Amino acid sequence: MTTNRIAIVTGGSRGLGRSTVLQLAKRGVHSVFTYNSSSDEAEKVVAAVQEIGGKAIALELDTGNVASFDGFVGDVRSALATLGAKRFDYLVNNAGISDHTAFASLTEEVLDRIYSVNFKGVVFLTQKLLPLLNDGGRIINISTGLTRFTTPDTIPYASLKGAIEVFTVYLAKELGSRGITVNAVAPGAIQTDFSGGVVRDNPAVNQHVAAVTALGRPGLPDDIGLLVASLLSEDSRWVTGQRIEASGGMNL
User: Which of 67, 81, 107, 129 is deepest in the core (most CB within 10 A)?
Assistant: First the structure.
């Protein structure tokens, strides 16, 4: 049996999830990660992990489709067997979608889709995977700096991330008897392709973020991947039920 720790990371083919998978690989942690549509990008992550000397398995999953979760758990069991294990150690609920619909234009359909992926999917995927999570394990839920400060046209997105933060606290209390820690990481503006890559690719937005951030720049994926990897380590074993913002001091 392998002695390596194993993480499940949703949305691991790009951005923050990709960085998390790679940072964990550098620490000797194998990953089973999900992607929604881009199998090519997922395979690139698998290859990058292999170059580091680690192992990663990519599984397709729409985290907004709760009906598919039982089948996904079966896929996870098979992936774990490939890695020489029956259970895993870390769960990173990273997958999510953005939305910038003005409140006056918000429709039930738009809200339901954001709810399905960014909250409902996180809750029920966690529930389905908990029987496979080792006691003493770790759960990280990705939130957002937008639960602390505001920006236009993000009411549904930020509100549901706020729900994730409350879920995090309650889950930390519930799973404490198993020695499982549960924390929320709240990134600020990060240079990825999230929201159409606006922070990375729009110079005006990039400059604005830099101007309102204490450390003087927008974040990079590794700013979050490194933090998540650290929180999953034994160094953070006494931290649970917390919202940890990683925004470089945005809007202080």
Answer: 129
